[in-house]
Amino acid sequence: MTKIQTVTNAIINQGILPLYYNADETVTIDILKSLYKAGIRAVEYTSRGESALSNFTKMVEIRNAEMPEMLLGIGTIKNLQQAEEYYKVGADFFISPGFVPEVAAFLIPKDVLYSPGCMTPTEIITAEAAGVTFIKLFPGNALGAGFMNAIKDVFPNLKFMPTGGVDTTKESIESWFKAGVSAVGMGSKLVSKDLMAAKDYATIENETKKVLEIIRTLK
Question: In angstroms, rounded to a whole number, what is the distance separating the alpha carbons of residues 76 and 83?
């Protein structure tokens, strides 16, 4: 099995891709451990702050030592330099807010999953032509589940995951899965700024377990 397929399967199997960023290295690691304890085996860390690269490097170190099954992805990749930096420190997969051709050309030949954000059929066609197989529908709250339902038959060979606006409720998650997505990306609705600030890792773990259980009942 290819590495791209392995990562794709891991995300689809859990049905959710948690994503977060925190400037503090310790908080970053503690959240990762909470998600792991909840049953998560693929997570996206967003490259949005000055400490993102050093924090992610530490995440890889801790993962290698304590949670070898965990796949670590990096999000908000907007240019080739970022992709190269995170590839060097061991990112398992890469996610962008939009399609970046140079990033696709760098990663896909290396058998590394690249999931770009797309919000039009033209963008999806362009990404598919570049070898992308896993599309991030972004922003999900602007597109809505109806968009997925309308395009799914046009792209039978692609997997889709909305990010942005997906809530932790059964109603929200179910609407997307019924429309045909393979997983949902979930950031602040799951790992909120308030929970991070309070270092309430127990709630993060419990809420993640609830979402995983909702997804299990839907499959």
Answer: 10
